[in-house]
UniProtKB/TrEMBL annotation:
Gene3D superfamilies: 1.10.287.130, 3.40.50.2300, Histidine kinase-like ATPase, C-terminal domain, Homeodomain-like. The chain crosses the membrane at residues 340-362. Its EC number is 2.7.13.3. This is histidine kinase.
Length: 917
C-alpha cells in the first residue's frame, strides 16, 4: 500500500512537470551590416527595418554601421558571423573589396541578402535595391517636361567611379540626349556630401548659374548647391532636383515643402523589403531573388502628402512600441505567476510523497530497533572474545618475530659456508667449462639468497624500530660518486650511460652514510634492472627556493611503472607487473630509511618512457634528535673527508698534462677510467703532447684554453656523454676544425650512427688494437696537414675531391675567410681586426683558427693573396705602377720588396719575362 502511494505521488509530479514547456525555442538572429548612404538615409533604412521587425518579437536584430570604410565593414561581418547568426543583410560599401567576405558567409550556409549594391560574384540569396539607371532616366524625363524641350541643365554627380553615380548619369543623359534644344551647361563632382558639393559649386558658380535646372544625385548635395547659389545672390530661378526624398528635419522632403528644392526622385531604402525577404528565407517560404524597388518624382504636388504619411507611420510605430512594451511586461508577470504556481504544486506533491515515506520509515525503524537490541547483546559477547583472542595473537606474533629473526640469521651461516668454498673452487685451473658454469650458477643463486636474507633482516629491524640513525656531515659529491663507482661494472656490462649533476651550492649534508648508501644503491639497482641496453640514468641534486630542503633525483629512461603499481610501489613485498625477479623489499626498506631521516620519497613514471625517484631531505641537523646524531668523541667520523677529496683532486690535476715538444701535435684524451687513461698516456706520450680529462666539465675547460689538434673521448662519462663533447666541438667556428675520435665500449649501431651524424671523424670500440688507434690518429692528422698546405698555397676554392677532407663548418669558415680577403685586397687598411669582426670572432680566435687550418698567420695569408693577384694582373698587361695600389700595397717600394722576397726577382724583371713570352 505504501509503495503504491509513493508511486502515485511521483507519477502525479511527473505528469504535472510534463505538461509544462521545459525548453524555450532559441531566438533566430538577423544581422545587418550597413556602409553606404548619408546618415539620414541610413537612419531611415534602419527605422524601416525595426518597424517591420516589431511584428516579429522572436527575432534578434544585430546592427553594425561601417561609415563608408571597407576594412571596418569586413571586420564587422567577421564579428557578426562569430555570434551564430541565422541570416546576414549587407549593404556593401564597394562591390570588389566586400565580395570575398560575403562569399565566405554564403559558403558557410548562412543566407545572405545584399541591398543597394550587388557583389561581384553573385553568391547571395536575394538582392533588394533601387534601379539607379531608372532613377536617372526618370530625372531626365522630368527635366525635359519642366523645360518643355528647351534649356540648359547642370549635373552634380556623386563619388567618381561609383556604380550608382555612373548609372544615374547614364540614365539622365539617355533621356535628355534626344532633345536637341536641351544642353548640359556643366558637370561637377560633389562626392555625395553636402559640404563638398557646396565648395565645388562655389568654384564653378559662373558656369552652373547659367543652368535652368541643376540635377544633383542626392538631396544632401542639392542643399549644398542651394547654399552656394544663395550666397552668390543669383537672381535667376534655377530649379534644383535631388534624389532620396527622405522625410524628417533637414532632409529632402522638408526642403521641397519649404521651396528650397524644386523636386526629388524618391530613392527607397528597401529596409522593409529586406526584412520581409529575410523572414521568408528563415521560415522556408517562397521569395524573389531580385527585388527592384519602384521610384517616383516628389515635388510640391505630393510632398506634403508624403510627409504626412511618414509622420503618421512614425506615430503608429510609437504606438506599436508602447503596446509591445506593455505585452512584454504582462508576459513577465504571467511567467512569474506561472513559476510560483508550479513551485506550489510541486511542493504539495512532494509533501504528500515525503509524508507517506516518513510513515513507512518510522514503522521500519521500530522493527529494526528490536533487531538492534538483540544484535547489541551478541556484539558485547563477541567483543569479550575478541579481546581475549587479541592477547593470544600478540603473544603468537612475538614468538613469530623471534623465530623470524633467529631463522634469518641462521640462514646466513650455511650461505656463507656455501659461497666461500665455491669462490675457492673457482680459483682452481683444472676445472672443466661445464663445472665452472655449474659453480657460477650455484654462486649466483646463493648470492641472491644472501641479499634477500639481508633485506628481510633490515625490514624487520626497521619495523621493530631497532635501527638508530648516526647522522653526521657527509661530503655529498664524493659520497654519490663513490656509490656510482661501485655500480660501474654493471653500467658497462649493460651499456648504460650514467651521469651526476649537482645544481646546488651544497658541499656537505647531514645523514647516516651507511643507510643512505643502501638507499642510493637500491635506487640505482632498480634503475639498472628496468633500463634497456644503451639507456641512460641521471642523478641530479637540487634545492628548493628557501634553501631548507634538497632533492636527490634518480632518473632513468627505462620501462617505467604501470599506473596501477605506483600507489603500491613502496608497500613491503609488493611486486608489480614490471618487476624483474625482485622481492618487493628494497623500496619499502628505502622508504623507511628516508622517513627515519625525516624526509620523503616519491615516484613519478610513464610506461615506456622511464621513472623518476625523488628524495626530499631537510638541510642541516636541527630536525634530528640528539640521539640521532653521531658522537664524534667516540671516534665516529664521516667516510668521505673533504681533505681527502682535495688531495685526490691535486693528484689528478698534476697528472692531466704530458708535454713532449712545442713542435708536436697535441691530443686531448677524455676517459673516466684511471687505468685506461694511464694506458693511453703511455701509448701516445712519446709522439704527442697530451691533455688528460676524466669528465665533461674538465674537458670543456681544457678546450677553451689549449685548442688541441685532435680529441679522443669515451662516450659514457660520470657527468655526461662524450657525444655532448663532440656536439659542442663541431658546433662552433673556434673548434669545428678539431677532429674527434670516439673510443667506447658501446658497439651498437645506434650509438655509432649518432656519432656519425654529429660528424665524428672516427669510431673505435673497446677493447681496441693499439697499433690501429695510433695509425688512425696519424692518418687524420696527416689529412689535416695536407688540407692546410692546399689552402695556404692556392688562392682558388678547393674542388669537390678536396672538399671531402674537411667538414662543413671548416669549409664554411675557409670560404668566408677567403671571400672577405679577396673582396678587400685593394684596401690597404685591410686588417686582422676587421676580418675578425666580420667573422664574429676575436682576434686571438681568428689567429688560432687560421693557424690550425692553414698553418700560417693571417697577415702572411693576406700578403700571399695580394702577390698572386698582382702576378695575374701583370699577365693581363697592366702597368706595375697601376698594380701595386690595386692589390692594396701602400707604396711601390713596399710592393717590390715583398714581391722579390716571395718570388726571388723584382716585379719589373718578372714583367719583362712575361712580355718576352
Amino acid at each position: 500500500m505504501g509503495k503504491y502511494f509513493i508511486f502515485s505521488g511521483i507519477l502525479t509530479l511527473l505528469l504535472f512537470c510534463g505538461c509544462q514547456p521545459m525548453v524555450r525555442k532559441k531566438k533566430q538572429v538577423i544581422a545587418f551590416s550597413q556602409c553606404i548612404g548619408n546618415d539620414a538615409w541610413r537612419q531611415t533604412m534602419l527605422e524601416e527595418m525595426k518597424r517591420e521587425l516589431s511584428f516579429n518579437p522572436d527575432i534578434d536584430f544585430l546592427y553594425r554601421d561601417a561609415h563608408g570604410d571597407n576594412n571596418v565593414q569586413i571586420n564587422q561581418i567577421r564579428e557578426l558571423v562569430k555570434q551564430d547568426i541565422d541570416l546576414l543583410i549587407v549593404s556593401p560599401n564597394e562591390a570588389e573589396p566586400l565580395t570575398p567576405i560575403v562569399d565566405s558567409v554564403f559558403q558557410r550556409n548562412i543566407p545572405v541578402i545584399v541591398t543597394d549594391r550587388k557583389t561581384s560574384s553573385g553568391q547571395y540569396n536575394a538582392y533588394v535595391g533601387a534601379d539607379n539607371l531608372a532613377i536617372g532616366k526618370l530625372a531626365g524625363q522630368y527635366s525635359r517636361t519642366i523645360l518643355q524641350g528647351k534649356g540648359s541643365v547642370g549635373l552634380v554627380t556623386g563619388l567618381s567611379g561609383t556604380s550608382a553615380s555612373i548609372e544615374r548619369e547614364k540614365g539622365f543623359m539617355q533621356q535628355i540626349g534626344d532633345a536637341t534644344a536641351v544642353r548640359v551647361s556643366g558637370v561637377i563632382h560633389g562626392g555625395w556630401e553636402k559640404n563638398k558639393a557646396y565648395l565645388e559649386m562655389r568654384k564653378h558658380i559662373n558656369v552652373m548659374s547659367q543652368s535652368d535646372i541643376i540635377f544633383t544625385f542626392n538631396d544632401q548635395m542639392a542643399m549644398g548647391v542651394k547654399k552656394a547659389l544663395d550666397e552668390a545672390q543669383i537672381k535667376k530661378d534655377i530649379k534644383i532636383i535631388g534624389v532620396d526624398a527622405l522625410p524628417g528635419p533637414g532632409n529632402g522632403l522638408e526642403q521641397i515643402i519649404q521651396g528650397k528644392m524644386f523636386a526629388s526622385i524618391l530613392y527607397p531604402t528597401g529596409g522593409a523589403e529586406a526584412i520581409r525577404t529575410a523572414l521568408a528565407i528563415i521560415n522556408h517560404q517562397n521569395y524573389r531573388r531580385e527585388n527592384i524597388l519602384a521610384t517616383s518624382v516628389i515635388d510640391k504636388t505630393n510632398a506634403e502628402l508624403l510627409a504626412l504619411q511618414s509622420d503618421k507611420i512614425k506615430q503608429q510605430q510609437l504606438d506599436i512600441d508602447k503596446r509591445q512594451e506593455f505585452i512584454t511586461e504582462q508576459n513577465k508577470i504571467y511567467q512569474s505567476q506561472k513559476s510560483v504556481l508550479n513551485v506550489l504544486v510541486v511542493s504539495l506533491v512532494l509533501a504528500v510523497v515525503f509524508g507517506g515515506i516518513s510513515i513507512i520509515v518510522i514503522r521500519s525503524n521500530w522493527e529494526k530497533n528490536k533487531h538492534l537490541e538483540i544484535q547489541n547483546s551478541e556484539i558485547l559477547a563477541q567483543q569479550k572474545q575478541i579481546v581475549e583472542m587479541n592477547s593470544q595473537i600478540q603473544q603468537a606474533a612475538e614468538i613469530k618475530n623471534n623465530f623470524f629473526t633467529n631463522i634469518s640469521h641462521e640462514f646466513k651461516t650455511p650461505l656463507t659456508l656455501i659461497i666461500a668454498p665455491i669462490e675457492d673452487l673457482e680459483l682452481r685451473k683444472d676445472l672443466t667449462e661445464e663445472v665452472r658454469e655449474q659453480l657460477s650458477r650455484i654462486k649466483r643463486n646463493a648470492k641472491k639468497l644472501q641479499r634477500l636474507v639481508s633485506d628481510l633482516i633490515d625490514i624487520h629491524r626497521i619495523s621493530k624500530s631497532k635501527i638508530k640513525l648516526h647522522a653526521a656531515i657527509v661530503y655529498i659529491d664524493p659520497f654519490i660518486q663513490q656509490v656510482i663507482g661501485s655500480f660501474k661494472p654493471l653500467f658497462k656490462k649493460n651499456r648504460i650511460s650514467v651521469s651526476y649533476v649537482n645544481k646546488t651550492s651544497l658541499k656537505e649534508v647531514w645523514m647516516d652514510e651507511y643507510l643512505m648508501e643502501q638507499v642510493l644503491s637500491n635506487l640505482l639497482s632498480n634503475a639498472i634492472k628496468h633500463t634497456a641496453a644503451s639507456g641512460r640514468i641521471e642523478i641530479i641534486l637540487e634545492e628548493n627556493n628557501f634553501k631548507d630542503y634538497f632533492y636527490l633525483r634518480v632518473l632513468d629512461n627505462g620501462l617505467g611503472i604501470a599506473p596501477s603499481d605506483i600507489e603500491h610501489i613502496f608497500d613491503p613485498f609488493y611486486q608489480g607487473a614490471s618487476s624483474r625477479n625482485g622481492s618487493g623489499i628494497g623500496l619499502a626498506y628505502t622508504k623507511q630509511i628516508i622517513e627515519l631521516h625525516h624526509g620523503q620519497i616519491t615516484v613519478s613514471s610513464k610506461p615506456g618512457h622511464g621513472s623518476i625517484f625523488t628524495l626530499r631531505m631537510p638541510i642541516g641537523n636541527s630536525h634530528y634528535e640528539p640521539a640521532e646524531l653521531a658522537d664524534f668523541d667516540k671516534g665516529e667520523k664521516p667516510l668521505f673527508q673533504q681533505d681527502d677529496l682535495l688531495e685526490a683532486t691535486r693528484k689528478v690535476v698534476d697528472n692531466n698534462l704530458s708535454f713532449r715538444s712545442n713542435k708536436s701535435k697535441s691530443i686531448m684524451v677524455v676517459e673516466d677510467n684511471d687505468e685506461i687513461r694511464d694506458y693511453l698516456r703511455s701509448l701516445l706520450e712519446r709522439d704527442y703532447n697530451l691533455f688528460l680529462a676524466k669528465d665533461v666539465q674538465q674537458a670543456n675547460g681544457m678546450l677553451k684554453t689549449h685548442f688541441p689538434d685532435l680529441v679522443i673521448t669515451d662516450i659514457m662519462l660520470p657527468d655526461g656523454s662524450g657525444l655532448d663533447i663532440l656536439k659542442d666541438i663541431k658546433a662552433f667556428y673556434q673548434t669545428a676544425h678539431i677532429p674527434v675520435i670516439l673510443l667506447s665500449a658501446l658497439a651498437n649501431e645506434d650509438t655509432m650512427l649518432e656519432g656519425s651524424k654529429l660528424m665524428a671523424d672516427d669510431y673505435i670500440t673497446k677493447p681496441f688494437n693499439a697499433e690501429l688507434l695510433r695509425t688512425r690518429i696519424s692518418n687524420i692528422l696527416q689529412s689535416r696537414h695536407q688540407l692546410k698546405e692546399k689552402y695556404s698555397s692556392n688562392v682558388e676554392q678547393f674542388d669537390s675531391a678536396q672538399a671531402e677532407q674537411v667538414n662543413d663548418n671548416d669549409r664554411r669558415f675557409l670560404n668566408n675567410f677567403s671571400a672577405i680577403v679577396e673582396s678587400k685586397l685593394s684596401d690597404p687598411r685591410l686588417s686582422v681586426d676587421g676580418i675578425a669582426n666580420e667573422l664574429h670572432l676575436s682576434r686571438v680566435q681568428l689567429y688560432r683558427k687560421v693557424k690550425q687550418l692553414l698553418d700560417c698567420s693571417v697577415n702572411d695569408y693576406i700578403i700571399e693573396r695580394r702577390l698572386k693577384k698582382a702576378k695575374s694582373l701583370m699577365a693581363e698587361g697592366l702597368n706595375i705602377n697601376e698594380i701595386f695600389s690595386s692589390v692594396g700595397f701602400s707604396s711601390a717600394s713596399y710592393f717590390a720588396s715583398a714581391f722579390k722576397k716571395k718570388y726571388g726577382q723584382s716585379p719589373s724583371t718578372y714583367k719583362k719575362e712575361l712580355d718576352k713570352k
